[in-house]
Amino acid sequence: MNRSYVFSLLTVLFLAAMPLFSQTDGVLTNPDELPDDFVWSITRYSGPMEDMVDAISEDLQRGYLPVGFEADPDISLLLIQDDTIPFTRWRIHEFTNPSQMEAEMNGFLVEGWLPMDIARTEGGIAALFIETELSVNGWRIVTSEATDDALTATIEDLQSQGLSVWGASLDGEGIWLLAVRELGDVTRITQYANYQDEPERIRLAVNESIAAGFVPWGLSLAAGRVLVTYVR
Questions:
Q1: 59-100 tens-digit pLDDT
Q2: I need a labelling partner for 42 at 20 to 30 A (CA). Which of 55, 76, 82, 104 fits?
Q3: Which residues of 153-186 are buried (b: 16+ CB within 10 A; e: fewer)?
Q4: Residue 44: helix, strand or coil by DSSP?
């Protein structure tokens, strides 16, 4: 059975969550002009579902936009402090029936839910959505071998079709990519980086990519590795 959790941003409760690595102080107001103090965070939320929901809602109340997502089974989010995409609710939905996934995903888009990232689960694929007026013209989920050459070729093929890669999820067999066709036929340049799970090195590397004009936009955690997807 598919599982779907819908949460509003009205709950404001203080519960502990562990930031794995972050850059703090500042608010992104224009995604085309990243400030030196651009705020981002990769945070892992653990514990009972209700506690995780409350902790995530508290962080989102602070103005964070959830752009990356992993479920392992704890929930990890890549957050950026961005007020250019207002949203009212967020949800995590697990797709467990491949034959119904296209219809279900299209149904969410029609209802105003925007897919931000995906995560492979034991039961199928989970997706992180936000409820927003921003919409997309289409989407695809594709798989690729997890080698640099294969992943680069897959991303370039998607971009040649007018699709921007927004999210990724590693599993034991390869990598799954979420690609969307943005309004106005905007195709963003995608960059990805595969880091060892070393917080300080990741912090410095992400900041270096941000300084080059790339926005961190997708997250995958697997086997001691951290894969971050960037767009510009």
A1: 888 889 999 999 877 899 999 988 778 899 999 999 999 999
A2: 104
A3: ebbeebbeeebbbbbbbbbeebbbbbbbbbeeee
A4: strand
